[in-house]
Amino acid sequence: MTEPKAPLTVSSTIDCTQREAILRAVFNNDRLRQWCISYVCKHGGNRQDGEDVFQEAIIVLDRKLRLGDYRGDGNFEAFFTGIVRWYWFNERQRSDRSNTQYRDNLPEPPPSSDPELAFLLDERRDYLSKLLKQLTEKCRNLLKMYQLDLSMEEIACRAGYANGNVAKKELAICRKRLKVLIEKNLKWFYP
Amino acid sequence: MKETFSDEEILAFLKGRGDPEERAAFAERLTTEPELAQKTARLRIEMAVSELLIAEETRALLQRWRAQKRQSAFIGTRPRLIAVVLAGLLMLAGALWYFLTRPVPTPPPAEQHHRSTPQQALEPESEPIAQGPVTSSRRAEDYRRRASRLLPDPPLPNFRHALTTGSDDPVAQAQRAYAAGDYTAALDLLAQADSTRRQTAAFWAAHALFRLERYDEAAERFAALIAQGSRQYRYAAEWGLLLCYYAQLPTQAPAFRRQLQAILAQHNHPYFEQAKEIANDRQ
Q: B7-27 as b/e, with b when 16 or more CB fall inside 10 Å?
């Protein structure tokens, strides 16, 4: 199956303003979408699976771009299709579906600067969700914006605080709460 | 060699920052310093929690784009062609009517060229030159469109699958409906919110009403949040209220000016710069 060519260029560093533009460009790329659906259908899935995988692959792509796993030194489309392949392969493993379609061409995991983070997100997702449920909506928003590397002023603006210092204090409170929860439930992640 | 690493420094390494030598040195120290390794492991879990939140927000954003795509695709082929032809004919008719009936243009009043500060922009404007209904209705549409662009959607919460979140919570269901573009359903659900989430429900309802172009009702909700002294939503509500009036210009010009003045009087207001831009545009 030939790789689709898409007019996308991504530099090695992205900031928040570029992030949504890149996600939208990939989302609107019908050729990548069709390739993804065809790939999933060829490997034991259906059209809806293909749409879901396309969406989840964009989410994984977003994380990898933000965490520097793509350095702008390779083919962007190949990077994305690699994510699709690996994601679908893992999904089938998880659901105990047969993976005989792969035979000898098993997909490789996409580049990851921190495989342990990928492990937590793949294999410990339910426990992470349990921690999330114990946080207030306010803390979830603050943690999300902090992870997105927004400045304290930007966080203050979005969260409705008077200034960056107030946002910093509120964030510190939320991070402390999360630390306590993590400490209390460390055995979930490192038995 | 650095003795200790702060949380921010460790998180920066976990996020792939730093030059390769620093990263290699850090990785080496993880294998020889158990305390650093433990601290890093905990921070990694914190990062994973945040990444899960971002994933849920991105998922909701993609679903909203999908809904928008479906909506625009629904304007299919033949109906779309008919609509385009009709719109073209209407525009042609409107242009012919305008050029055949427009009055001779006169130079604008002198004072309108010399405003240089936002405060001056707040002074009462002189009567505009008489213009045809096509232009004034286009202006009103421009204000609505610009107001819609300037109002950010409320930050979307975690939309993890029903198994792990309270899918029965009407506010969560309303937020999902909002993310999918179903503002009417969102309003119905928000009306069922319990008293502990009244402000959150009011904030989201105000946004849903705004998107439905029910600006007066949206303005009421924003004004109520301001009056309640909501710590979380006050600044965003003040901005929302301004945009409700902005979308209804020129009919709500006095209320718009008052609200704009209120924001411009607070130099630390998070939306001060944006309010200033609106004021400059209005000159």
A: eeebbbbbbbbeeeeeeeebe
What is the value of ipTM here, to two decimals?
0.89
Find out whether B236 and B200 touch, Cβ atoms under 8 Å. Answer: no
B48 touches chain A (CB under 8 A): yes
CATH code of the domain in which B145 resides: 1.25.40.10
Interface contact flag, B160 A141, Cβ < 8 Å:
no
Interface test with B, best of A26, A112, A114, A185 (most B CBs within 10 A): A114
**Sequence spans of domains, chain A:** 16-102, 124-189
* B-chain residues near A131 (CB < 8 A): 45, 49
Amino acid at residue number A11: S
Q: Which residues of A fall within a CB distance of 8 Å from B72? A: none
Answer whether residue B56 is part of any domain. Answer: yes
pLDDT in tens, B115-150: 444 444 444 444 444 444 456 666 778 888 889 888
Q: How many domains does chain B have?
A: 2
Q: What are the pLDDT digits (tens) for B182-228?
A: 899 999 899 888 777 788 888 999 999 999 999 999 999 999 888 87
Instruction: Return the ∠ at Cα A132 (arms to A119 and B211), rounded to 5°.
Output: 115
- Name residues of chain B where pLDDT drops below 50: 111-133, 158-166
Give the pTM. 0.56
Mutant choice from A54, A112, A144 vs B, greatest count of B C-beta within 10 A: A144
Please name the amino acid found at residue B245: Y
Percent of chain A with pLDDT over 70: 86
Residue B135 within any structural domain of the chain: yes
Question: Where in the sequence is the domain holding B51, given as residue range(s)?
Answer: 7-71
Query: Helix or strand or coil: residue B21?
Result: helix
- Chain A, residues 72-111, CB within 8 A of chain B, namely none
Residue A110 main-chain phi, psi, to 5 deg: -70, 160
Which CATH number is correct for A124-189, 3.40.50, 3.30.43, 3.30.70, 1.10.10?
1.10.10
